[in-house]
């Protein structure tokens, strides 16, 4: 793995932790260099831009969910802020060198934390820990997850289940060494054993069963866990592309239909919830070890959730859906230098007015869950909380959307009132207007810079090291980039000269 800023080259990597330069993209880690940078030297410079044709006051006057004025995307920000300096590594647990074709929450996660500590790092950032999307085209991405609150049970360590007495040593499969994570192969190998361990947990009257019962009763867990288990049970029994194709009593959550599902699928539902407990138990062990070493774990929270999810099915009034449950508008971003037609993400958009009316209750629950898993977390596409791009459902490209006002400070006022102040990192890449920066500053959240984006666009490029701000997280690259080594090796010689200078 690449050395953090200031680390000594003679500090060894933990046993079996693969070198980042030898790994393909799915198995690599990224360096945050430095996280929470406190730049020294000349003050940070503003961003050069075209003159805006609207004003902050005009934008602030627009009601939530309403169209923003023309010229909104040109209303560019100035910069400032502050925080202490830290360094860390972005590495999703799937990329640890696990024995069964995927990294897990066993001894290699502990060894990685020990290595971070020895290298002088105090931060480990992970990608979303949710069950990854495994439908066609999703390729196991944690950004197309099946549920915003559940844990990815493929991360459960089989060896830790042996230590808990839930599996026998001779039941473990032979080691499976793969360069890439092949999620279907891993699932076929691990899921039957994890389900067997969960069944044994449910049949056991011991301490683990008592802990499981407490986990289920936790009011911050029970709501989302029951919805997720019911959704999974229905999805497992009905061959449909999405929940909108389910029979109407199930699609519309008729109490009698849900009761029938629970009674008919009780074993499946209990096993599902027991697997979530096992994930939780192992993750808590990893997080506890990190806390002992003084390492903060940073999570990642995509602002939007997938349509075919318990989140949307169980909370329809919180999303912009028609009477049949179909999205009326979907997410994306407008055309830019990287895409002539924009990016169409197709996630359903929130009904922010409805959410504000109930105090953003769904978001409060989601934030509480994040705080249960992480010490701090990044909000992906933070700018969508200030102004979001709404694309009519059914559009083939994103360019036909429009800017609409987000919930802005009302959102964070409600969150802070419910859970107190929280450590948030704002992903503020892309089209960042002045209101986005003002919202970020108002909550004291650091923004981001990416070193791989720095070497183009002239001396005013905000990603160049001499333009880094106080209170900013600086990455060599994110999950969307190559590793630093791969990036350097792919650069043309003339660009290498620019970087060297």
TrEMBL record:
A Pfam family annotated for this UniProt entry: Glyco_hydro_77
Keyword Cytoplasm among UniProt keywords: no
Membrane-traversing stretches: none
Disordered: annotated span: 1-24
GO molecular function: 4-alpha-glucanotransferase activity
Source organism superkingdom: Eukaryota
Keywords for the protein's UniProt record, in alphabetical order: Carbohydrate metabolism, Glycosyltransferase, Transferase
Catalytic activity: Transfers a segment of a (1->4)-alpha-D-glucan to a new position in an acceptor, which may be glucose or a (1->4)-alpha-D-glucan
Assigned EC number: 2.4.1.25
Listed GO biological process terms: carbohydrate metabolic process
Record flagged with keyword Transferase: yes
PANTHER family recorded: 4-ALPHA-GLUCANOTRANSFERASE DPE1, CHLOROPLASTIC/AMYLOPLASTIC (PTHR32438), 4-ALPHA-GLUCANOTRANSFERASE DPE1, CHLOROPLASTIC_AMYLOPLASTIC (PTHR32438:SF5)
Family as reported in the entry's similarity comment: Belongs to the disproportionating enzyme family.
NCBIfam families the record matches: malQ, PRK14508.1-3
Name of the protein described by the UniProt record: 4-alpha-glucanotransferase
């Amino acid at each position: 793995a690449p050395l953090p800023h200031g680390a000594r080259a003679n500090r060894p990597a933990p046993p079996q932790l693969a070198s980042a330069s030898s790994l393909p993209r799915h198995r690599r880690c990224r360096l945050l260099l430095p996280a929470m940078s406190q730049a020294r030297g000349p003050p940070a410079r503003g961003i050069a831009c075209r003159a805006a044709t609207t004003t902050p006051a005009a934008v602030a006057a627009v009601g939530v969910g309403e169209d923003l004025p023309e010229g909104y995307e040109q209303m560019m920000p100035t910069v400032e802020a502050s925080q202490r300096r830290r360094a860390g590594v972005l590495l999703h647990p799937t990329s640890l060198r696990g024995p069964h074709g995927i990294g897990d929450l066993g001894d290699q996660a502990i060894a990685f934390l020990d290595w971070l500590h020895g290298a002088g790092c105090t931060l480990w950032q992970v990608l979303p820990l949710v069950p990854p999307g495994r439908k066609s085209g999703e390729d196991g991405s944690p950004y197309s997850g099946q549920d915003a609150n559940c844990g990815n049970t493929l991360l459960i360590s089989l060896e830790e289940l042996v230590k808990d007495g839930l599996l026998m040593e001779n039941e473990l499969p032979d080691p499976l060494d793969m360069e890439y994570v092949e999620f279907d192969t891993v699932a076929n190998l691990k899921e039957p054993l994890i389900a067997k361990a969960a069944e044994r947990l449910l049949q056991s009257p011991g301490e683990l069963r008592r802990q499981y019962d407490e986990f289920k009763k936790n009011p911050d867990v029970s709501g989302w866990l029951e919805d997720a288990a019911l959704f999974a049970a229905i999805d497992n029994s009905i061959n449909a592309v999405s929940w909108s194709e389910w029979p109407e009593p199930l699609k519309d959550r008729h109490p009698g239909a849900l009761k029938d599902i629970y009674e008919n699928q009780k074993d499946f539902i209990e096993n599902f919830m027991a697997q979530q407990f096992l994930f939780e138990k192992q993750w808590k062990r990893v997080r506890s070890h990190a806390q002992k070493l003084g390492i903060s774990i940073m999570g990642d929270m995509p602002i939007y959730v997938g349509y075919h999810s318990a989140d949307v099915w169980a909370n329809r009034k919180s999303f912009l859906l028609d009477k049949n449950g179909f999205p009326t508008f979907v997410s994306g971003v407008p055309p830019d230098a990287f895409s002539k037609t924009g990016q169409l993400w197709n996630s359903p958009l929130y009904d922010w007015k409805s959410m504000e009316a109930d105090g953003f209750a769904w978001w409060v629950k989601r934030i509480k869950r994040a705080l249960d898993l992480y010490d701090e977390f990044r909000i992906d596409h933070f700018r969508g909380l200030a102004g979001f791009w709404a694309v009519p459902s059914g559009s083939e490209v994103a360019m036909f959307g429009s800017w609409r006002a987000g919930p802005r400070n009302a959102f964070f006022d409600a969150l802070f009132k419910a859970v107190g102040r929280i450590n948030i990192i704002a992903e503020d890449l892309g089209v960042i207007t002045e209101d986005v920066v003002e919202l970020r500053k108002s909550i004291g959240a650091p923004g981001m810079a990416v070193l791989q984006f720095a070497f183009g666009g002239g001396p005013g490029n905000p990603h160049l090291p001499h333009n880094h701000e106080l209170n900013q997280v600086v990455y060599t690259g994110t999950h969307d980039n190559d590793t630093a080594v791969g990036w350097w090796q792919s650069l043309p010689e003339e660009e290498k000269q620019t970087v060297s200078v």
